[in-house]
Write a structure and sequence with these properties.
The complex is a heterodimer of chains A (369) and B (221).
Chain A: E1 23-34, E2 43-54, E3 58-62, H1 69-76, E4 84-89, E5 92-93, H2 99-106, E6 109-113, H3 124-134, H4 139-152, H5 168-180, E7 186-190, H6 198-215, E8 218-223, H7 226-232, E9 235-240, E10 243-249, H8 250-255, H9 260-270, H10 276-281, E11 291-298, H11 307-315, E12 319-329, E13 332-341, H12 345-355, E14 361-368
Parallel strand pairs in A: 3-8, 3-9, 6-7, 7-8
Antiparallel strand pairs in A: 1-2, 1-4, 4-5, 9-10, 11-13, 11-14, 12-13
Helix pairs in contact in A: 3-4, 3-5, 4-5, 5-6, 11-12
Chain B: H1 3-40, H2 50-65, H3 68-74, H4 76-83, H5 89-113, H6 117-125, H7 130-161, H8 172-181, H9 186-214
Helix pairs in contact in B: 1-5, 1-7, 1-8, 2-5, 4-5, 5-7, 6-7, 7-9, 8-9
Classes of the chains: A alpha/beta (369), B mainly alpha (221).
Chain lengths: 369, 221
Amino acid sequence: MNASFPILSGAPVPLPSDVQTRPIIAFANVSKVYPSRKESAEVVALDDIELQVPEGAIVGVIGKSGAGKSTLIRLINGLERPSSGRVLVNGTDVTALDERGLRQARRSIGMIFQHFNLLSSRTAFENIALPLEIAGIAKSGIADVVEPLLAMVGLSDKRDRYPAELSGGQKQRVGIARALATKPKVLLSDEATSALDPETTDQILSLLKTINAELKLTIVFITHEMSVVKKLADRVAVLEGGRIVEQGTTYEIFTHPCHETTRKFVGSITGGTVPEWLVAKLRPDRRDGDSAVLHVGFVGGDADQPVLSRLARTLGVDVNILHGQVETIAGHPFGSLFISVSADPEMLRGIIGELRAGQNTVEHLGYVS
Amino acid sequence: MSPEILELIVWSTLDTLVMVGLSGLFGTLLGLPLGIFLATSRANELFPAPVANRILGLVVNATRSTPFIILVVAIVPLTRLIAGTSIGTRAAVVPLTIAAIPFIARVIEAAIREVDQGLVEAARAFGASPLQIVEKVLLPEAMPALTLALTLTVVSLLGYSAMVGAVGGGGLGDLGIRYGYQRFMPEVMATVVLVLIALVQGVQTLGEAIARRLDKRTRNS
């Protein structure tokens, strides 16, 4: 089968460059060690974390359970204290604040939770009012803040409902409105969509994107789902065993994952993992009449170039597509394709050279008959 | 039954209600803060004071494991100090209150510990102080459980109050012992038991109804 690979027509979209604005959150050499107790050895939850969050960005921290995500996000609002290092939020070192100072600082940092953590004894309105009551806002001023927030999250008609009467998505909307009540500069999201079904997840994610754009709110979220990172994040940090093993823009991470953990996460989304049936047929060495199997990642500017048809034209080889997927990552196309080409070793080098043009990645996996 | 006996039963019922009402009230006033403290003062909790927590826990356990009738006799000097006398209904309120405090503290501690820790974390994340967390999160969220706990307390106090007759306290228990048992008037004994059953039923039903009204967790749209 001859194939070109037109992913998107039209002008190439510029890649997101690293945001250069002042970081609103900065981790400097942050470690968190839980000291050993009787039976258990000491646990290093976070190890020398360096992380900058640009103002107005949406940064995702992804990792498996136990990687240290929860600890990391709780260092930002001081729910956890680091063993060493500093955490700067909006120019303030939160690790140096006492409890009173922290309480003040937390009012400019909103937080939403996996299990929503709404008070069952309060209505939607009263839940959103809680941070305002805590901040000592007069009762008369509270409704002026809460009503617009209810409208913003689309729950004005559920104003006087109790959490037990709301769906999961509605509860999280109340959670988001509550987190925004004190007009924070930063929103922390602790697995906010992990308890929701896929459709509701998408609604919550697009609500978060809207909030980020309209309120210029910086969002830091933790998740174990790469699909959430793909839909929401501008930048990603990959956490494993308490270390950030890789970080960069979402597009970089998806198109050029360097660390094994990142590849596994990314592969689950971009089709970067070799399909089962192909694994069974792959051989490491070449026999007569075999075709070479290549995994090509089409990236950025080249993702919308007819690379395969050019290959067929200039080198005169037939390209057979075995498996492929095209994804939009952070608003940019990214293709992952498994192809087989019938070529001798000499010619294969030429083909790989041709495919590597631009930012594309090529991996020679083996041979099939 | 003669009108005199009927009048006695009415007065004794009132005595019982006064004893239980007052000791329940004083017991709650003192037991509630103690229960809140017990529920929030272990290491890494809102008001960490693990040593005080342990000591108060021991005192509570000691008081609760003392049989009530022994407690009544043992604290007679204290009773005399507070009530001015060691006999009668007024005096009986003192040992009843002393017995109610640790009981109430424990049931309140249990009710507060039932509150989801995620709510406490959320309140902390919004900048709430420990006192604000108690006032705005723990107590309102525990309210249905607290209501049931206090119902249980009142029912227990009804039982205890029947024993203070032994030291000259009034009430239904005293009436039952003196007339029903010592003067062989089985109809008085039966009436006393029936009134007590009715009181327990009434308190329990009322408590459950209030708790249900306060509980917003299971309501469905």
